[in-house]
UniProtKB/TrEMBL annotation:
The keyword Signal applies. Residues 1-21 form the signal peptide. The lineage of its organism: Eukaryota, Fungi, Dikarya, Ascomycota, Pezizomycotina. InterPro entries: WD40/YVTN_repeat-like_dom_sf (IPR015943). This is Methanethiol oxidase. Keywords: Signal. The keyword Signal applies.
Length: 480
């Protein structure tokens, strides 16, 4: 999908009438107003270059949710799950469950948002542990807000607070919490305001207000960078002490919707200067075929990060402070090939142990979670059997629990339905997997969202955040 500067101008203008940040509940109009005002001398030439818009849905409000009874239980370990119902007439919601051994799987409460059909995607918690934010992958199709903020100052009774959207970009993905005292979040938007190439790294304050979309249109060097190679950021990780961010480019969202000639996949990552909010360089993994995820390895002396190349079924190592022969900053090297069953598995997401020793990878359409010991990057050891049939279908989101004893894997990636070509099979379960002393995995308990939310047609949990209140004086949450 070639992108000329004039087409880029169209994409940047596409949501010129959308609000930067809008609280909900608010009325959703049944008709969609013009997204671009008439501008003499500007809109006429743009009209001939306008790409087709994604398939839009009538932005109807959700129907009344089925009643539920919240629990008075106060477990020491809580799981928060950002979830969409199978019956998309109902609202999307945040579900909360006990993860304590003696009350595992006990429903605690549920919080609806005032919209539906967002395809709930990633979820993270602020560094002050008072706010959760979840993104909507397909909110654009109903012209709805993309970011949904929850007040978790009372962790047993979260409340929906507000929502927001960006101006230039959409398709919400990965979330990184910014350090205190400033707080807030960085969030990748994989697509433009119209779902095409030219996404953004968005920034939000602690109240859920949009601060900026990076690179800024006035940042000419960074804008030139994203016009040169596909810029569809999905993966995101930050090292605030070293003043760098890595984003990884996955797919052009619009290319996953019908009609399509095929999903357009990227081979690149971007290295950022946090203070300047600008791109330092592009890092390429040849023939990567979608670089879905990137994460810094905790404690690595070279500030190295891992990145997943979905087409290749490989894990690459990124050295952000090394230089290539051409003088460009950021070196990519192959770390580990996950074997033939990992190639083209649609998605490869990751999480790492807090000490940086163990790496876990979800191989979505292979129905498998891989485990690697990466304590010695020159001698990576595989801890799982790639030929084993694991009791999980369609895993995607992975979160190591704060106590480092379990891996929470969710059996669902994405289902676009009849309008798209991304429809992965899942078991729609929360898998609470034991981490053995050597880092290997033992599948144990599950929470089945199909039956838990049968009154909503079943439900599809996409992402989780885990809280541990074992020590009331030092509560722990897993936050990137």
């Amino acid at each position: 999908m070639p992108l000329t500067p004039l087409k880029a101008a169209f994409i940047l203008a596409l949501h010129a009438l959308s609000t930067l940040s809008s609280p909900v509940p608010k009325p959703d109009p049944l008709s969609i107003p013009p997204l671009i005002p008439t501008i003499p001398g500007i809109t006429d030439p743009l009209a001939s270059l306008a790409p087709p818009l994604p398939i839009l849905k009538v932005p109807t409000p959700p129907i009344a949710s089925p009643p539920f009874t919240a629990s008075s239980l106060k477990p020491k370990k809580l799981g928060y799950f950002w979830t969409g119902p199978f019956n998309q007439a109902y609202a999307d919601f945040l579900a909360v469950y006990s993860l304590d051994d003696d009350t595992f799987g006990t429903f605690i409460t549920l919080v609806d948002v005032p919209t539906s059909g967002n395809e709930p995607h990633h979820l993270n918690v602020s560094k002050d542990r008072k706010t959760l934010v979840g993104t909507g992958l397909l909110s654009l199709l109903k012209t709805q807000d993309v970011e949904y903020f929850f007040d978790v100052s009372d962790p047993y009774s979260p409340k929906f607070r507000n929502s927001g959207r960006a101006l230039l970009s959409s398709i919400g993905d990965e979330i990184v919490a910014k350090p205190e005292p400033e707080g807030g979040f960085f969030i990748t938007h994989m697509g433009s305001a119209g779902g095409t190439d030219l996404g953004r790294l968005t920034e939000w304050d602690r109240a859920g207000n949009l601060i900026g979309e990076w690179p800024a249109v006035t940042d000419l060097a960074s804008t030139k960078n994203i016009l040169a190679d596909q810029f569809t950021p999905h993966g995101l990780n930050a090292n605030f002490e070293k003043n760098i961010i890595l984003t990884s480019d996955f797919v052009v969202p619009l290319s996953t919707l019908k009609p399509t000639t095929g999903i357009i996949k990227a081979n690149t990552l971007r290295l950022w200067d946090i203070n300047k909010r600008s791109i330092i360089s592009t890092i390429t993994i040849p023939n990567g075929g979608g670089i879905q995820d990137v994460k810094f390895i905790p404690g690595n002396p070279d500030t190295a990060a891992i990145a997943t190349a979905v087409h290749l079924g490989q894990v690459w190592i990124i050295y952000p402070f090394k230089y290539n022969p051409d003088g460009s900053q950021g070196v990519a090297e192959l770390l580990y090939d996950l074997g033939p069953k990992a190639k083209d598995v649609t998605a490869i997401y990751t999480d790492l142990s807090a000490d940086g020793r163990f790496l876990y990878l979800s191989l979505t359409t292979a129905n498998h979670v891989a485990a690697l010991d990466i304590s010695d990057l020159n001698n990576v050891k595989r801890l799982d059997n790639p030929d084993e049939a694991q009791p999980i279908i369609g895993p995607h989101s992975l979160r190591v629990t704060p106590d480092q004893k379990h891996l929470v894997a969710l059996g669902y990636f994405v289902q676009e339905g009849d309008i798209g070509v991304l429809n992965t099979v899942g078991d729609y379960k929360v898998h609470y997997i034991d981490i053995l002393p050597n880092g290997a995995l033992h599948f144990n308990r599950t929470i089945p969202f199909l039956t838990e939310f049968a009154n909503r047609g079943g439900a599809r949990p996409h992402f989780s955040v885990i809280a541990d209140f074992t020590d009331p004086a030092d509560p722990k949450w897993n936050s990137y």
